């Protein structure tokens, strides 16, 4: 029984093994905090979050990427500064921002300067540390980079001023906030996981899993991996590497590349098309002309897959507790 459970236990990714982050946490961060991150950028973000003891899910550290052509920026958020100051045991709060409104070319109603005072207990005394941020120094300019300054000018300048005040008051806690490159083994692990997601055997397993969920009798499904390879879901064989994406069934290709033939699709069974989900994974889904119906099918499949993963995790946890003599 133990052997059977071990065979179905979820595989731990390379990145999870070297970082200590659970795969579910990595996936959540990839989707919600670091959308569009490359493998190296994701590794760098996880490394700095762990090195600094910051929680990405509570906005203590941010991943900023304005487009795929721009390099990512990893920035410690104001919540991260406050948390580190609090951990020192000497943080004694902060005052409300004080604004000035000289005309320096800022949008109407926006401040020209913000000043914030933070307090620290020094030798039993509550001591102030004040810093300022000026519009002409911190406004990033037109375009996406300046969006938040135009939408929330008071907040943006106040956050800048407060972070500088916290740096002045808590240098030992904040001097280490400079972002560092991830270790080589973290980068190698992230790149290996990225290649594994596109491996033919991985795509074949995922495709068969979806076919089990949908209980289709259409026969072998051909799936394209990330717009590059066409893979047979049964054998994992790479059938083609065309240069452009296309629907991979109905009609089937002819000749030697066609693989096993099947009868034309019926109204109740119209085959599959390749679908790329929000994680960048290419999966087969039943073909339908109804977009709403197609989305419902994908959500149903995701929910079923998530439930199965949870059950496997529970089985593995029970097995480990038995081995440790806890149950």
Structure explained in plain terms:
- The protein has 327 residues and is of the alpha+beta class.
- The chain has 2 domains: 11-177, no CATH class; 199-323, no CATH class.
- The chain contains 12 helices and 11 strands.
- It has helices at residues 2-8, 14-19, 23-32, 39-52, 78-87, 135-138, 147-151, 153-169, 171-174, 184-197, 200-214, 291-323; strands at 61-64, 73-76, 91-94, 98-100, 113-122, 125-134, 222-225, 229-232, 238-240, 272-276, 282-286.
- The strands form 4 sheets. Strands 3, 4, 5 and 6 form a 4-stranded antiparallel sheet that branches. It has a 3-stranded antiparallel sheet with strand order 7-8-9.
- α1 crosses α12.
- The longest helix has 33 residues, at 291-323.
- The protein is globular, with a radius of gyration of 26 Å.
């Amino acid at each position: 029984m133990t052997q059977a459970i071990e065979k179905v236990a979820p595989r731990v990714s390379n990145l999870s093994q070297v970082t200590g982050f659970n795969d579910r946490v990595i996936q959540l961060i990839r989707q919600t905090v670091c959308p569009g991150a490359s493998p190296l950028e994701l590794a760098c973000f996880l490394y700095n979050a762990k090195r600094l003891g910051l929680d990405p899910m509570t906005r203590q550290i941010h991943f900023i990427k304005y487009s795929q052509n721009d390099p990512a920026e990893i920035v410690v958020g104001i919540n991260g500064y406050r948390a580190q100051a609090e951990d020192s045991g000497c943080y004694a709060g902060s005052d409300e921002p004080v604004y000035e409104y000289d005309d320096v070319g800022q949008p109407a109603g926006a401040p020209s300067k913000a000043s914030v005072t933070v307090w620290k207990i020094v030798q039993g005394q509550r001591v102030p540390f004040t810093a300022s941020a000026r519009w002409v120094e911190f406004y990033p300019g037109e375009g996406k980079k300046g969006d938040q300054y135009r939408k929330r000018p008071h907040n943006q300048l106040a956050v800048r001023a407060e972070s500088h005040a916290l740096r002045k008051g808590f240098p030992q806690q904040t001097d280490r906030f400079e972002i560092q490159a991830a270790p080589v083994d973290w980068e190698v692990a992230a790149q290996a996981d990225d290649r594994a997601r596109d491996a033919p055997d991985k795509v074949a397993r995922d495709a068969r899993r979806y076919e089990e969920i949908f209980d289709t009798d259409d026969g072998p499904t051909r799936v394209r991996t990330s717009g590059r390879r066409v893979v047979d879901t049964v054998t994992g064989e790479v059938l083609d590497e065309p240069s452009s994406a296309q629907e991979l069934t109905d009609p089937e290709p002819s000749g030697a590349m066609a693989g096993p033939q099947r009868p034309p699709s019926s109204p109740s069974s119209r085959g599959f098309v390749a679908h790329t989900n929000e994680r960048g994974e290419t999966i087969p889904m039943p073909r339908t002309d109804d977009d709403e119906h197609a989305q419902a099918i994908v959500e149903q499949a995701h929910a079923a897959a998530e439930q199965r993963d949870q059950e496997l995790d529970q089985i593995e946890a029970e097995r480990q507790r038995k081995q440790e003599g806890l149950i």
